[in-house]
Design brief:
Helices cover about 30% and strands about 25% of the residues. By secondary structure, the protein is of the alpha/beta class. The protein has a single domain, classed as Aldolase class I (TIM Barrel). An 8-stranded mixed beta sheet has the order 3-4-6-7-8-9-10-11, covered by helices on one side. A hairpin with a 2-residue loop joins strand 1 and strand 2. Helix 2 packs across helix 3. The longest helix is centred in the C-terminal third of the chain and has 18 residues. The radius of gyration is 17 Å and the shape is globular. The relative contact order is 0.15. Belongs to the radical SAM superfamily. 7-carboxy-7-deazaguanine synthase family.
């Protein structure tokens, strides 16, 4: 049994120690494991190497596709768990891609990591799996708004949003590039009764200059609407690079 992971370099799985760069746990030391494959295709995705493989015609702001062989690797659940243990952190961030597509394998891997605090970063379109769900301490849910380019019919599934609104372990983090995006997020919160204390707004961008420009209007917007603003700490610290 195995997991399908993204790579840092060809053949080397993307498992690394760093600081959590976004959301409610921003700044906490942790280990990341980045899985490959996604059911959505965001036009601005900063990890398109997890899904935008040669032959994939889904749109992305970069027209370039990548080699699946160089950017995807299989790893046994036991090997993945050992690599995570070897990094010595007590918090694990499972990211992607869309991790929930590999939920049964993740559940088997986490069974080998007792005592680990586990966060899952998900686009929110896939329901929690019964084998994995009891092992998760925090869901970092990032529903994809219209500017992502994904049809709402697959990205903003009403029953999923209703479920996340009621899930006490879930934070909902909306990526925004304009005030129109932020207003769309507020409208979704109203429709699905998402408490504002669970909502975070985060600027879209892969460089510090772009993020600063967007945070300049996003900060007063969050103050006005009593929302939490998330930075992208890892971009400021390490730039847009793998394994950070």
């Amino acid at each position: 049994m195995s997991l399908t992971l993204a790579t840092v370099t060809p053949g080397e799985p993307e498992i690394f120690a760093s600081l959590q760069g976004e959301g409610a746990s921003m700044g906490k030391p942790c280990t990341f494991i980045r899985l490959s494959r996604c059911n959505l295709a965001c036009e601005w995705c900063d990890t398109a190497y997890t899904w935008h493989f040669e032959g994939d015609n889904r749109p992305h702001r970069s027209a370039d596709t990548v080699s699946r062989a160089a950017n995807q690797v299989k790893l046994s659940e036991e090997d993945a768990a050992q690599r995570i243990r070897d990094l010595g952190q007590d918090r694990l961030i499972i990211t992607g891609g869309e991790p929930m597509l590999q939920a049964p394998a993740l559940a088997r891997m986490l069974a080998l990591l007792p005592g680990m605090v586990v966060e899952v970063e998900t686009n929110g379109s896939v329901a929690p799996h019964p084998a994995l769900d009891p092992l998760i301490h925090q869901y970092n849910v990032s529903p994809k708004l219209a500017h992502s380019g994904n049809p709402a019919s697959i990205a903003l599934i009403p029953e999923r949003l209703d479920q996340w609104a009621k899930e006490p372990r879930a934070w909902l983090k909306f990526v925004v590039a304009s005030e129109a995006d932020a207003l769309e997020a507020l409208a979704l919160a109203e429709t699905h009764a998402i408490s504002r204390h669970k909502i975070m707004l985060m600027g879209e961008g892969v460089d510090s200059e772009t993020l600063s420009q967007r945070e300049a209007w996003l900060a007063p917007f969050c103050i006005q609407h009593k929302l939490t603003m998330s930075k992208r700490l890892h971009i400021d610290l390490f730039g847009d690079s793998r394994g950070t």
